[in-house]
What we know:
- With 145 residues, the protein is of the alpha+beta class.
- It has two helices and eight strands, in the order ββββββββαα.
- It has a domain at 4-88.
- The strands form two sheets. It has a four-stranded mixed β-sheet, with no helix packed on it. Strands 5-6-7-8 form a four-stranded antiparallel β-sheet, with no helix packed on it.
- Strand 7 (75-79) and strand 8 (82-85) form a beta hairpin.
Amino acid sequence: MKFKYQFVEFMPDVIQERVIYISLEYKSVIHKCACGCGEEVNTPLHPTGWKMIYNGEDISLKPSVGNWSFDCKSHYWIINSKVEWSLKWSDETILRVRRDEDITRQEYYRNKSSQILVNDSNELKDPLVSKPIKTNWIQKFLFWK
């Protein structure tokens, strides 16, 4: 099965089958589940989430799409706008992967927060202060207050 895609600012009220809607402004990609169950799949674009590759003709999403909270529990890849089915995962595997994703997300935000704190403290240590201008004795005498 091959998806069509549309770049949009806002997601439409009605999500059509076999169409992937991409909002770069809101960093979101939405489509209906490839299995045909009718569920809407939201894959937010984020450093710890999905990445989208657009080559000018087709799109790919990485990592795979695992609809673990849907009844269908479908699992597939979207590569060059085509669905490539993957293996179904056991409940144990789903829990382990979710746990790993949570840890990755926490580390990302912890590192991001640390980086912000370091940047803020560097600004405090090195404020932009104008250096005193060297003056000779005549200038000191003329401008003495």
